[in-house]
Design a protein that fits this description.
Elements (H helix, E strand, L loop, with lengths): L17 H4 L5 E5 L2 E6 L10 E5 L9 H8 L7 H7 L3 E7 L6 H18 L6 E6 L1 H15 L6 E7 L10 H9 L6 H6 L2 H6 L15 H13 L7 E9 L12 E5 L8 E3 L7 E8 L2 E7 L10 E4 L1 H13 L3 E2 L5 E5 H4 L10 H4 L15 E5 L10 H10 L4
Parallel strand pairs: 3-4, 3-5, 5-6, 6-7, 7-15
Antiparallel strand pairs: 1-2, 2-4, 8-9, 8-13, 9-10, 10-11, 12-14
Helix pairs in contact: 4-5
Length: 400
């Protein structure tokens, strides 16, 4: 189950695209823990104007072809082609384990940054960035390189719907993942992976555990702060797939978003997160014998402004495929990365309903850790490659 994956992003026209639109990279660099796939701009046979695009979080290793097609979908926005046409040599960065800790994959990113710099035959600085957790990986890699006094030669850093302030997987869904672990462990394993523990705003270690900020996330944030929090050299750019006016996605809090309709777990229901105290978020049943999970002090996170993910829809589809039992998702799509998280708004709390409803489009520039940022005109899919966001993003990058 690809519960918090970077979606297959993007599209392609800059150079010939054989095999149904999948372009073969001109170079493949192998790193300890990943790969860099190089797609030259027309007329280039060496790196001259580099940009690195990092994969994010999903099960297993990076699917090169899937990621390329996602980044280069002519039906939405052909990002790789557009960058190539502007003279950029595109390096797509993938990982052997996309659920590994941010530290591990940041080491891969650092290798890629230094290799790209060494391969370049010009003095043109690098542009580096990532999608979803890929933005955190690149951020950490640059900060660490600066702490080590390494010359990363990066002029611009970007993040694309990156959970700088944390991502959200409902407590109800985390509870259900552990509840069905004897039958299917995949979802629980992903929720309890090193990367998820560092990325999620609130995390459950097991069915009985209270949701908390995981110690691995606390340590990650502390490490970032000790090293400077953000890279100093590059211009920092960010885009959010969520709205900027604070308007949510319309999901009715407290309503059942997921139901099991037959089989061993019949009667199980997972509810959209409601604000307030002692709110039931899950009724977990075995043969209609219920156990309830409740939260107190949470805002309406499933309904908030932000990049969306079909979390409950994927859960229902996976459950049905694996068990042959009946599950449905009346509200499959929910908030995953709140806008205030993707834009690294300062002095906010994902646990505050008021902060989730901030009109960030009207905030003073001093409220952002980023130098320039862009929100979506609607709450769109997490890391969805839209013309609105991508055109703005590429226009922020240095021209040749």
């Amino acid at each position: 189950m690809s519960g918090f994956a970077v979606h297959p992003l993007g599209s392609s026209q800059a150079q010939p695209t054989p095999r149904g639109g999948i372009r073969v990279p001109e170079r493949t660099w192998e790193f300890d823990g990943g790969w860099g796939w190089v797609y030259f701009a027309q007329g280039h046979d060496q790196v001259q104007q580099p940009i690195i695009l990092s994969d994010g979080f999903h099960p297993g290793e990076t699917d090169r072809n899937g990621l390329y097609l996602g980044l280069n979908d002519p039906g939405s926005y052909p990002l790789v082609n557009e960058l190539n046409q502007r003279g950029y040599d595109v390096v797509i960065l993938g990982y052997r384990d996309c659920t590994a800790s941010i530290y591990d994959n940041a080491n891969v990113a650092a290798q890629c940054i230094m290799r790209t710099s060494a391969e370049s035959v010009t003095d043109t600085p690098l542009v580096v960035g990532g999608f979803s957790m890929g933005g955190l990986i690149m951020r950490y890699a640059l900060v660490k390189l600066e702490m080590m006094r390494a010359d990363h030669r990066t002029s611009h850093y970007f993040s694309f719907d990156t959970p700088h302030q944390g991502a959200w997987i409902p407590i109800s869904l985390q509870s259900f993942a552990y509840y069905i672990k004897p039958l299917y462990s995949g979802l629980a394993d992903m929720i309890d992976s090193p990367a998820a523990r560092q990325m999620l705003w609130r995390h459950k270690e097991n069915l009985a555990a209270d949701p908390v900020e995981h110690p691995d996330r606390t340590e990650f944030l502390q490490r970032l702060r000790r090293m400077g929090d953000w890279p100093m050299r590059p211009v920092k750019i960010g885009v959010a797939n969520g709205r900027g006016d604070g308007q949510g996605n319309g999901n009715p809090p407290g309503t059942a978003a997921f139901k099991v309709t037959d089989g061993l777990y019949i009667g199980t229901e997972l509810y959209l997160q409601a604000g307030g105290d002692n709110k039931t978020v899950a009724k977990l049943c075995t043969l209609n014998l219920p156990t309830y999970k409740r939260t107190s002090g949470y805002p309406e996170l499933d309904s908030a402004a932000g990049g969306t993910l079909d979390s409950f829809g994927i859960a229902a589809e996976t459950f049905n495929a694996l068990t042959g039992q009946g599950a449905e998702a009346p509200y499959p799509i929910i908030n995953f990365v709140p806008t205030i998280s993707a834009l690294a708004v300062t002095d906010v709390d994902l646990g505050s309903q008021q902060d989730l409803q901030l009109n960030v489009d009207q905030l003073d520039a001093s409220r952002f850790a980023l130098d320039a940022c862009k929100t979506s005109s609607d709450n769109t899919g997490h890391t969805e490659i839209t013309s609105e966001l991508c055109q703005w993003l590429v226009d922020q990058l240095p021209a040749k």
